[in-house]
């Protein structure tokens, strides 16, 4: 991660960590709740697995993973305020200040069966970050990402607000990285589009089917990307 960009977002989330609202990158708790539900579904069974949540924020996803049976859960974030609070409140989970762009730090972590990056890739270099996450993934493991879609007009406004600092990928860029990862390590990938529904009575998002051909009629707000590292069946 570029040092100036990293410092900017560290300061930005330091401020957000002091607020009462726990949904951070989302407009409300319903959007965050459905997103976490989609991530948990894409991660698949976690009972007895070792899980890493990158960009853990307030720690909701990590705590959910522990609650549904993960053997070990680790959450990392660049914001020390989050980590200090989580260590005090939820000591059964391992919480650390860290990033995936630190090779020596990553080498100390071992491997994981499930890795999630929710609302992270817009702040970092997409390809190198996903390659490092893939290296941390054990055979048979799953990597799941949620990221804004650069082709969505709503996301374009956020890019204008943070020029040069908020840089989400397109679906085709994610697909290209997915192809490269699976060529290197063996496996498969697919993605879904998450678009705000016309009727949001039950859920804010309408979520597309899994696809390896990202040809959406209307650009979705978010992209949900999942990759499986050998020895598990393809997403369909």
Report strand %.
15-25%
Strand sequence of the main sheet, in spatial order?
Answer: 3-2-1-4-5-8-6-7
CATH topology: Rossmann fold
Rg value: 17 Å
Q: Alpha-carbon distance between the termini?
A: 33 Å
CATH superfamily: Vaccinia Virus protein VP39
The low-pLDDT segments are: none
The mean pLDDT is 94
What percent of residues adopt helix (DSSP H or I)? 25-40%
What's this, in brief?
The protein is of the alpha/beta class and 236 residues long. It has helices at 3-16, 29-43, 60-67, 80-89, 103-107, 126-136, 153-161, 171-185; strands at 50-54, 72-77, 94-97, 112-118, 137-148, 188-196, 205-207, 222-228. The protein has a single domain (3-228), classed as 3-Layer(aba) Sandwich (Rossmann fold).
Question: How does the SSE layout of this entry go?
Answer:
Blueprint lengths: L2 H14 L12 H15 L6 E5 L5 H8 L4 E6 L2 H10 L4 E4 L5 H5 L4 E7 L7 H11 E12 L4 H9 L9 H15 L2 E9 L8 E3 L14 E7 L8
Parallel strand pairs: 1-2, 1-4, 2-3, 4-5
Antiparallel strand pairs: 5-8, 6-7, 6-8
Helix pairs in contact: 6-8
